[in-house]
Specification:
The strands form four sheets. The protein has a seven-stranded antiparallel beta sheet with strand order 2-6-7-1-5-4-3. Strands 14-11-8-9-10-17-18 form a seven-stranded mixed beta sheet. A two-stranded antiparallel ribbon has the order 12-13. 30% of the residues are buried. It has nine helices and 18 strands. The protein has two domains: 188 residues, no CATH class; 220 residues, 2-Layer Sandwich (Nucleotidyltransferase, domain 5), CATH 3.30.420.140. The radius of gyration is 24 Å and the shape is globular. By secondary structure, the chain is of the alpha+beta class. It is 35% helix and 25% strand. Helix 4 packs antiparallel against helix 5. The protein starts with a strand and ends in a 9-residue tail after the last strand.
Length: 420
Amino acid sequence: MAIKSVTHTHRASIRNQRQVRDGLDTLGFAAAKLWNVARYTVGRVWDACGQIPDGSALKSYLKSHERYADLNAQSSQQVLEELDEAFRGWYGHRNNGNERANPPGYRKNGDDHPRATVTFKEDGFKHDAKNGYIRLSKGRNTKEHWSDFILCAYESDPDVTIENVQVVRAVFERGEWRLHIVCRHEIEVESPGDRTAGVDLGICNVAAVSFGNESLLYPGGALKEDEYYFGKKRAETNGSSSREGRHLDRKRADRRTHFLHALSKHIVQECVERSVGTLVVGDLGGIRDDGDEPTDWGDHGNMDLHGWAFDRFTTLLDYKAEAEGIEVEPVSERDTSKSCSACDRTADSQRVERGLYVCGECGLVANADTNGAENIRQKVLPNPQREDRDNGWMAQPAVRLFDRREGVFAPREQVVDREP
């Protein structure tokens, strides 16, 4: 039995909503205003020289702006970091030929600013665990006096312990403010076993998992259907600043987040059932680039690639696996799609088409993603067994589809409703 440190986000309601609403409204409006100031600044730089200022330069430049002092310094920095991340994502779309991608918009609804999420880090909050209070700091400009703050009485689920708080987010949801509290928990975990599994991430099949004697395939059809549906609906709205457009964006983001949570949870559960103690994941850190030039995956491939949150998924997979005592080990994916997992022969021609892999040396016929997952698994094995194996499971992996009714993954035959 080992002690592990894991991070979980807990949602909590605010008991004294009436007392703190005005103060949180002020900070939410301030966060939206600072975003807009930074958005205007980045836009001017882009128009002038075709470059996006990095996050550190943006923070340095806006540190003296009056809107910066409306929030606690760390809260203001978080707003600028989120804008920088959004611009980087758009820039990646643009470089990969997606002309439909739009840069981050302004946070405004006509002349009104929305209540943006406000993030409080270690210097921005105080936690009173005994009495169930969290004190949130204001910015210099929003304080009535030097010791002014917002004192929130929170209430979380009965089975949740709020301890070792790392970050607090004030989020306006369904007409009221709520707290998202990020906690670090020390838990006792025991490894499920000594087996090893490999995970290959992709575009058409978002994940393929190999256990060495069987494999699972997770198609991304539900995710693609959502992207198509919401993209079509988004095009019918009146632009990025419309209320309907922002509602569609939030709904699409929520559905993608749930999909990633459900996917990572299902993979970890399957590993626990099979006594897997080590989960090897292909590192896609360089998949968007090939040397100095962006990789061209074709029009649809580029859009799918940047629409797939690889880093976010691996983060979810990592902490869910850790909570079950499973070690997650990233390895390079180089040549895993070209090499035969049975005889190790490497050739581009062996991947006959996207879903089929045929080895010209040993005659292996396999699902291409399953073959890649098995290659990833073998990268950490001391003595990979590449001969005298029954490879039928590689040609016909078990398929798990996303069930929209239940919000979980299930075997193909159990899923009947896949409408957006």
